[in-house]
Protein: Thiol-disulfide oxidoreductase LTO1
Organism: Camelina sativa
Amino acid sequence: MMARFVSVSSCQFRFGFFEFPPPSLTPYPRRFEVSSRRFPAIPIKCSSSEPENGEDSAPSLSSPSSSSEVSTTTSSTYNWYTVLGGIGMLDTAYLTYLKVTGSDAFCPIGGGTCGDVLNSDYAAVFGVPLPVIGFVMYGLVTALSAELAEDNLPFGISKTNGRFALFGTTTAMASASAYFLYILSTKLSGSSCLYCLVSAFISFSLFFLSLKDVKLQEIKQVVGLQICLAIIVVASLTASYSTAQPIPSRSGDIELPYFRTEITSSSSPYAIALAKHLNSIGARMYGAFWCSHCLEQKEMFGREAAKQLNYVECFPDGYKKGTKILKACADAGIEGFPTWIINDQVLSGEIELAQLAEMSGFSLDQANEANQLQ
């Protein structure tokens, strides 16, 4: 009769066999039969104590060092954002100071004033000074990149959305900078603004950094939004500048005959003594007849004291296109007006009398002696 069904565990299949009683209990010889039951054709795979999944036991292809290198590269990129954003903040902060106070850097050699661009109608957008807007945008880029580097974005913003926000911000800045360069070359022809060019360079650098940071597949998802953003920026600036008036070229086409400037303020005994002292030690003031800052510097001394100064006029024959600066000024390396050279030290711009006294070694005792002589 049929005995029990035996299972073999060494392989993942089963087979059955019949076991018969001893020969003494049966009249026929012992025989072995394999059951004629058909089994489905299944692949045979021997099991072992090792995991069935070969992937679990295989060594990982990614190593901690590779992920660390990616993290370091990303952090380095955001550090560049922070550095460039910080430089942009310094640049626009200085321009904001010049715009708000009405100040200007010392006059360029080519004629005109350095504030042509800042004092034009194009230096504000809907009444807001353009440098202020730039300062805010650079501050936003700096703060956002610092948060992305620390992976600690506020309001639960994901890192992907943070990168998209940074990409959108730099796109707007680059679009605005491209438009401003167009304005500078067409509406403000003949004027130059080094600080504006530096700001534009930083904006484009930030845009290309963000373009590299965002993957190509991600760019395809937001390219339409970026184009719309750029169009909105350009359209807004165009609307703001619709009534702006271009400024004429100051250095390319005009011709300025030489003229003498009149000093209206009177001199104090201290100013007269200081002017005589500066003359005695060989201090020189270099200027140009059309430079308003040179006139303001002389007004600080007054009529009597200004006559005692060792003043060098760098354009004694007037100015027109192609006129060369006086050789004495060129030899001294003069790049702007007014420029003081005191004891081989170069000072640019309007200088307070107290600072001139300190730089030249003029003491109060000398001033008192001058007062007594008078």
